[in-house]
Write a structure and sequence with these properties.
Elements (H helix, E strand, L loop, with lengths): L21 E15 L2 E13 L9 H9 L9 H13 L7 E15 L6 E15 L2 E15 L1 H20 L7 H8 L11 E12 L8 H12 L9 H12 L5 H12 L5 E11 L6 E8 L2
Antiparallel strand pairs: 1-2, 2-3, 3-4, 4-5, 5-6, 6-7, 7-8
Helix pairs in contact: 5-7
Catalytic activity: GTP + H2O = 7,8-dihydroneopterin 3'-triphosphate + formate + H(+)
Protein name: GTP cyclohydrolase FolE2
EC number: 3.5.4.16
């Protein structure tokens, strides 16, 4: 005996009182491992289609899920793959849906060398890749968060000022003489380095509108370009010589949040694969209990 299982979504349409088009219907937080930039990224994926037939009961969610499973077999996901998935979403929902969307929430792990020593370690970069297909128009956006260190220029100036005052006072009180050894000895005391600039762990949240004809996902390229612009990315494994090099880099790279945002602007505003961006930088202050932030957009 052939058993026909019921399909509620295919039953007679809804009464007119409940007939409304819905922007998005689908699933969120689908756990899937996918490969991006030759790296296995455990991800949570959101998948949606619009429900444009106001009288239809619902969509076929299993069709979205089974199509997403095919992404796990790919050596590397690219924009072409994701566009095909969205096209298949719509093909499997003919007469129901005209718009489809995928969001991939994940982290990319990159091994980074220490500044001087031979040590290395791994850094994680949270990202969201969002793709949408509507009326044969494909759109893609990429969000990535990048941690870095920032040292306050005002704090550095105040620290230099108090060191100058201490040096002048030591000379006047004849605690030191103007010879090299006395000065070197004095500089090695806590009296000399009486103040240090305050630094803070900072974050750049970069949101890009990608060229629709782009094939590969430029995640590592964008991360490297942003870190090069900011100049003081956070470190992983370090020895003392690396920590000292990091202190030097911070001392020579003073910046307010406004400076950091303008550096990122200059780095990305003419990029050939970007049609727009929305940036936010956050300096999690060590002086205050609040954060310093700067935000800006281009062609959004």
């Amino acid at each position: 005996m052939n058993l026909v299982l019921p399909d509620i979504s295919a039953e007679p349409t809804l009464p007119n009182a409940y007939s409304h088009r819905l922007d998005w219907v689908g699933m969120e937080n689908i756990a899937l491992p996918v490969r991006i930039e030759n790296t296995l990224c455990p991800s949570h994926i959101n998948a949606y289609v619009s429900l444009d037939d106001p009288l239809a009961k619902g969509i076929h969610m299993s069709r979205l899920y089974t199509r997403l499973l095919e992404l796990t077999s790919l050596e590397n996901i690219n924009m072409f793959n994701l566009k095909l998935v969205l096209e298949d979403f719509l093909d499997s929902h003919q007469n129901l849906s005209q718009h489809a969307k995928i969001e991939i929430h994940s982290k990319l792990y990159i091994e980074r060398p220490a500044l001087v020593s031979k040590l290395s370690g791994w850094k994680s970069y949270p990202f969201v890749l969002s793709c949408q297909l509507s009326n044969d128009q494909f759109e893609a956006e990429l969000k990535v968060e990048i941690p870095y260190s920032s040292t306050c220029p005002c704090s550095a100036a105040l620290s230099r000022n108090i060191i100058q005052q201490r040096f002048e006072s030591a000379l006047q009180n004849q605690e030191i003489r103007l010879n090299q050894q006395d000065i070197m000895n004095w500089l090695n005391t806590t009296d000399a380095i009486a103040a240090t600039p305050h630094s803070q762990r900072s974050f750049a949240l970069l949101h890009f509108k990608l060229d629709q004809n782009l094939q590969n996902i430029p995640l590592i390229e964008f991360i490297n370009q942003a870190e090069l612009a900011l100049m003081t990315p956070v470190q992983t494994a370090v020895k003392r010589i690396d920590e000292q090099a990091f202190a030097v880099a911070n001392g020579q790279n003073l910046m307010f949040c406004e400076d950091a945002l303008r550096r990122l602007y200059s780095s990305f505003i003419h990029h050939k694969n970007i049609h727009g961006f929305k940036f936010k930088v956050t300096h999690a202050e060590s002086l205050h209990a609040h954060d310093a932030v700067a935000q800006g957009t281009w062609q959004w």
